[in-house]
Amino acid sequence: MTRIQAAKQRAEGVKRTLAVLAAVGLVVAGVLARATNPGHTVRTTRGAGSSSTATSSESDSSSSNDFSIAPSTSQPQVQTNVS
Amino acid sequence: MSPDGFEAMGVDVFVGGATKPELEAIGLLFEKLERTFSRFRSDSELNRVNATTAEFVAASPMFVRVLALALDAARRTDGLVDPTLGAAIEAAGYDCDFAELGDDERPPAPAVPGSWRHVRVAGRLVFRYPGTKLDLNCVVKGLAVDAAVQQLSSDGFVAAGGDVAVRGSAVVGLPGGGSLTLRDGGLATTGTTHRRWLRGGDAQHHLIDPRTGRPSMAPWSEVTVAAGSCLEADVAAKAAFLLGDEGPAWLDERNLPGRFRVGEVEISNRSWRRALEPAQAA
To answer: Of the candidates A49, B69, B96, B154, which lies 20 to 30 Å from B78 by C-alpha distance?
Structure first.
């Protein structure tokens, strides 16, 4: 076997391994999604040497509790319609 | 503060207090969201996801993020705001841009109730029953308005149709008359007075009740809600509308001011009256 053939064989092996890992990842993601409560978001994060899974009721809108409405008799700066 | 304007998502968008670069950034933001989530653009990501027959489909980070927000809205409203009503709104006849939508003698197609509990997001994968048609417009416009107002470097506002978000304070004109000062929050009005059409001689509108898969039979013509963000106000207004007579109390339980209109008659909840009482008393 030439060195080139050996290198090709190693590359094929790496490709197969990556394909298997990708397939496993997909199945794991699917299982996690099915295992969670309906409608939930599953986030899988992988850091160096560790992995974690978090189920989140993600609410990342910019909602503020400090809003207020007050009476006004001034001319509107902006007119709203109906959606 | 003289507002600038442009058209996006089928409505006029008005922006107050923006510099020219901020206005351009806001225009691009609306364009990107519309390109991704439009039901009427054949090349939108929403239509690509809906056309996929597999049980799961990979989507862009922005798509899954917005879908996650929509699922969160569904949870918070016990499913009254549902991101799986794409087939139901088409069944009611709203299957093209509203400007092109006409009355039709054909009856509506069979009802399609919501199925948000069967949708899951894992990373960038979206799982749902094949055939489920997502429609994320239940959150996209409110989200766009909130994201747009965050682009402003100083006080101002962004308004799109019935949705407005304010940074600082602004005097906001309400549909049907009247105005109020809104500070650091959002205001949304949803209703059936504008987007209406006929199918088989019966009036249809865009506020689908996910429990029936049909346009809501709630008594209100319009519901206006104020909240800490436009998205929150929009979601709450839709839920309160669909809850019918229970809508005002549902908003009060969440300390959200709401105004309900039936034709020319106005009903406001306790939170709304408490905030605006001084003017009414004057």
So the answer is: B96
Residue range B36-47, pLDDT digits in tens: 999 999 999 999
Interfacial B residues in 101-140 facing A (CB < 8 Å): 116-123, 125, 127
CB-based burial, B19-56: b 16+ in 10 Å, e otherwise: eeebbeebbebbeebbebbbbeeeebbbbebbeeeeeb
Residue B85 sits in which domain range? 4-281
Backbone region of residue B266 per phi and psi (left: phi > 0; alpha: psi in -120 to 50; beta: other values): beta
Name the 3-class secondary structure at B163: strand
Q: Are B238 and B80 in contact (CB under 8 A)?
A: yes
What number is the ipTM of this complex? 0.87
Q: pTM to 2 decimals?
A: 0.84
Q: What is the CATH number of the domain that holds B243?
A: 3.10.520.10
Task: Give the helix/strand (H/E) hosting B68.
Answer: helix B61-76
Task: Determine the Cα–Cα distance for residues A1 and A63; give it in Å rounded to an integer.
Answer: 66
Within 10 angstroms of residue B221's Cβ, the number of other Cβ atoms is: 19
